[in-house]
Amino acid sequence: MKLTRHKFKAVASERDGKKFPSKLEARYYEKLKLRQSAGEVLFFLRQCPIDLPGGVTYRVDFVEFLADGTVEFVDCKGMETPVSTLKIKQVKEIYPIEIKIVKKV
To answer: Are 10 and 78 in contact (CB under 8 A)?
Structure first.
């Protein structure tokens, strides 16, 4: 697989035939699979869209369905931008969810 550079110097990666825009997101995916094998995570979804006003969409990297019945929304961010910060703020104002930001795995 040819690795390309992202505008924020993230390096694209591939795991299990799935493409990830950064090594951080790929490592978090691997961690999720281990947690799933251990029974802590029942299943998870990737790149889930959340609609915002004005036809804008925010994509959260992972939605995790945990064994205890809770659901977590997780975004892997090596670098936060003003646009991502604004979109996360909008999501929190519109929907009753909290987005967990992961900066290191």
So the answer is: yes
Helices assigned H by DSSP within the chain: 23-37, 82-94
Q: Which domains does the chain have, with CATH numbers?
A: 13-102 (3.40.1350.10)
Q: How many Å apart are CA 5 and CA 11, to the nearest integer? A: 5
pLDDT tens over the chain, length 105 residues: 454 454 556 777 777 777 877 889 999 999 999 999 999 999 999 999 999 999 999 999 999 999 999 999 999 988 888 998 999 999 999 999 999 999 998
| Global pTM value | 0.83
